[in-house]
Every structure is written in structure tokens, then in C-alpha cells.
Design a protein that fits this description.
This protein has 394 residues and is of the alpha/beta class. The chain folds into three domains: 100 residues, no CATH class; 188 residues, P-loop containing nucleotide triphosphate hydrolases (Rossmann fold), CATH 3.40.50.300; 84 residues, Helicase, Ruva Protein, domain 3 (Orthogonal Bundle), CATH 1.10.8.60. It has 17 helices and ten strands. The strands form three sheets. A five-stranded parallel sheet has the order 5-6-7-4-8, with helices on both faces. The longest helix is centred in the middle third of the chain and has 22 residues. It is globular and about 60 Å long.
Length: 394
């Protein structure tokens, strides 16, 4: 590797503008200085092109035989004053001297933005929509990939049908969402309804949310009727049953009636109804395993892990931004809240509320801020949008 060294009494003003005069150094000092000061390689090459008479001259110059010995010193301007000197450190790093081998220029920020825009323009409208729907969510990258896969399969089969190519049998579109409270299960159900409607699989993007209380009637024989009415309201869209495991957990016939009617309606409307059952992971496994009909219809699972402490903090910041609030001294509050999040997750276990916990924390914070502002009589434009650490009392 060939580097330049310019003496302090350099008279070449043009050269002096391009390089910073430095003292003569040994190999070890050179290496340290170059790393610490981030010397520009392009400048090095241009200097060598100007002062090296030819590549042949460099090749003919005797080099140090031992890596530990002093580097060979080359006077690159034989008939002129010693304005610049070149060290041979080829045993360290190999940087080509010839112009044909110069390192490519680092792309500018404009080039990067242009490349990203080009990449974005090549995405299909479907992928763009999925990206947009997931853009405001924290985490969930693996869930987005699963939605990509499902949507891509449906789209490709539609393309095959348009070209009179045999279409594969559609897999079951009913799904099991496994995860603790507040991990985004209902939110992703709405995304799936949107995508399926966009693809023409469903007539609407409507999501009907229910649970055991919405399906089970007070008296035996009425549950089937009540369950049927709820399912019929969801035809053409998505039926989302939260804590579905509770239908089979209790030892009575009411839950069995609801499950039997659910299976019948899923079969009758298999082309225009998507059923998503959700709940704690282990309990949902037992729910599906409790009935052969459920096993045959629910074979697509999506796992919703708990949010990390950093992700919970990011959710809080997004809530603040969406509601025109700013947190004062974020670093101090973040350090305290991350510790609190970790503690709450350990104490509450699988019952920890995740995003719901953060929303409750945010709502309490803005209530505390409102009370504080009224007491202090400082409700100006700035203070109305500012949350401080005292507002987040636990």
C-alpha cells in the first residue's frame, strides 16, 4: 500500500490544500494515524499519480525485506525539492496505484435515495399495500412475511386461472393466532381482512369480533341459534373469536353446541368466510386438539411473541406522536421505564398486557399531565404537548 507524507515546509500550495501536512512516522505510527484520522484513499491515489513518475519506477525501488524493518523511503520527485515522500507498506494493505484500479466512489445520499425509489417502484401493488398496512406496527416482521406468503399464493393462483392453467386446490384460510394479550392479534386480523378483500377472496374487509359470551346462550338449545346469528353477520368477511379455548374448557354442553355450529357454518361458507381463533398458545393447542373437525379446518398457525422492552418503549413513542405529545428528557424516562417493563413482565408472566399495558400507561400519563397543568396554571401551547417524567408515575 503506498501512502504519501508531506513535510511541513511544503511549497506546493495546490498539494497543501488536498493533504494535511504531517510529520515523518514509522510504520506502526503510520498505521495508527491513518486509522485514527480516516485518511481518504482517493486523495492518496491522486497524489501518487502526480508524483510517481511511473509504476515501473515504484516496482524498481528496493523494498524492505522484513515486515518489521523500517519501510523503504522513495523520493518520488527526483529532480525537485523534497515536497512529498511515499512509504511502501504493501505488506500491510494492498491499495492499487494505477487509475484503472482506483476504488469506486462512495454513492451520494441522492444516489441511495434514487436506488431505493427504483426498488420501491418495482414492488407489486399488493406488496406495497402490505408494507403500508404493517408500516405503523412495531415488530411483526415475521407476521408480515407470513401475510406475504398467503397473499402471494392467492395472487399466483389467480394468474394461473386467467391463463387457463390448472389451479391448485386452495388450502384452508382459517387461522389460529397464538399469543398473550396485547400482542397484535386483532390488529393483524384486520390486515388479513383488508388483503383478502383486495384480492377478491372476501366480499368485504369487515371483521366481526366475538368471544365465548357472544356465542354461548343462557339456556341449553339456544347456543346453536345464537352462534349461527353471529357467524352469519360475518359472512363475506372475517370472524375473529378471542379466547376461543374457553368454548371447550368448561365441562358443559353449551360450548360443544357452539363448536358444532361453527364447524358446520365454516363448511357451508368455506369460499366466503375466514374464521380466526385466538388465545394463549398452550390453550389454543388444546382447543384445536379437542375436536377432529377443528384439527382438519385449522392448520395454519401464527405466533405472536411478547414485545421486548425496547419495542414497548417504541410503542409508547408512537402513541405520543400520534396524539401530538412529546416526552421531555426521554433518556431519563426510558431508562426507568425499561426497568419497569422488565419487572412487570416477570411479575405478570403470560398475563402481561404488552401493547395494552403501554396504552394504559399512556392514558394515565396524559391524565396526570392534565391535572398538573391545571394546578400550575401553565397551559400554554408548548406545555399542552409536553409530558415529563413525573406524569409517568407507576
Amino acid at each position: 500500500m503506498y501512502f504519501y507524507n508531506v513535510e511541513e515546509d511544503c511549497q506546493d500550495r495546490e498539494l497543501e490544500m488536498n493533504v494535511e501536512p504531517i510529520h515523518m512516522m514509522n510504520v506502526e505510527e503510520w498505521e495508527s494515524w491513518l486509522i485514527d484520522n480516516n485518511v481518504c484513499m482517493n486523495v492518496n491515489v491522486s497524489i501518487l499519480k502526480r508524483f510517481n513518475t511511473s509504476k515501473t519506477d515504484l516496482e524498481q525501488t528496493p523494498l524492505a525485506s522484513d515486515a518489521a524493518s523500517e519501510p523503504a523511503l522513495i523520493d518520488s520527485r527526483k529532480n525537485s525539492a523534497s515536497l512529498a515522500k511515499v512509504f511502501n507498506m504493501s505488506n500491510r494493505v494492498n491499495v492499487p496505484v494505477s487509475s484503472q484500479q482506483e476504488a469506486p466512489k462512495k454513492p451520494s445520499s441522492r444516489d441511495v435515495l434514487r436506488a431505493l425509489a427504483l426498488q420501491e417502484s418495482k414492488k407489486s401493488p399488493l406488496i406495497k399495500k402490505i408494507d403500508r398496512l404493517f408500516s405503523e406496527f412495531v415488530g411483526m416482521s415475521h407476521l408480515k412475511e407470513e401475510v406475504y406468503r398467503q397473499a402471494s399464493f392467492i395472487k399466483v393462483q389467480q394468474m394461473r386461472k386467467e391463463k387457463n392453467i390448472t389451479v391448485a386446490a386452495s388450502p384452508s384460510r382459517h387461522m389460529v393466532f397464538k399469543g398473550n394479550p396485547g400482542t397484535g392479534k386483532t390488529t393483524v386480523a384486520r390486515v388479513i381482512a383488508d388483503i383478502y378483500h383486495e384480492l377478491g377472496v372476501l366480499d368485504t374487509n369487515n371483521v366481526v369480533e366475538t368471544d365465548r359470551s357472544g356465542l354461548i346462550a343462557e339456556y341449553l338449545g339456544q347456543t346453536a341459534i345464537k352462534t349461527k346469528e353471529v357467524i352469519e353477520s360475518a359472512i363475506g368477511g372475517v370472524l375473529f373469536i378471542d379466547e376461543a379455548y374457553s368454548l371447550t374448557e368448561q365441562s358443559n354442553q353449551y360450548g360443544g353446541e357452539a363448536v358444532d355450529m361453527l364447524l358446520k357454518m365454516m363448511e357451508d361458507h368455506r369460499d366466503n368466510l375466514v374464521v380466526i381463533v385466538a388465545g394463549y398458545g398452550d390453550k389454543m393447542d388444546r382447543f384445536v386438539a379437542s375436536n377432529l373437525g377443528l384439527q382438519s379446518r385449522f392448520n395454519r398457525y401464527m405466533d405472536f411473541p411478547d414485545y421486548s422492552e425496547e419495542e414497548l418503549w417504541e410503542i409508547l413513542l408512537k402513541l405520543c406522536k400520534a396524539n401530538s405529545y412529546t416526552i421531555q428528557d426521554q433518556s431519563l424516562l426510558k431508562q426507568r421505564l425499561l426497568q419497569e417493563f422488565e419487572l412487570q413482565k416477570k411479575q405478570q408472566g403470560k398475563h402481561f398486557g404488552n401493547a395494552r399495558y403501554i396504552r394504559n400507561l399512556f392514558e394515565k400519563a396524559i391524565e396526570s399531565q392534565s391535572y398538573r397543568l391545571i394546578k400550575e396554571s401553565t397551559a400554554d401551547y408548548y406545555s399542552l404537548q409536553l409530558l415529563n417524567e413525573s406524569d409517568f408515575s407507576m
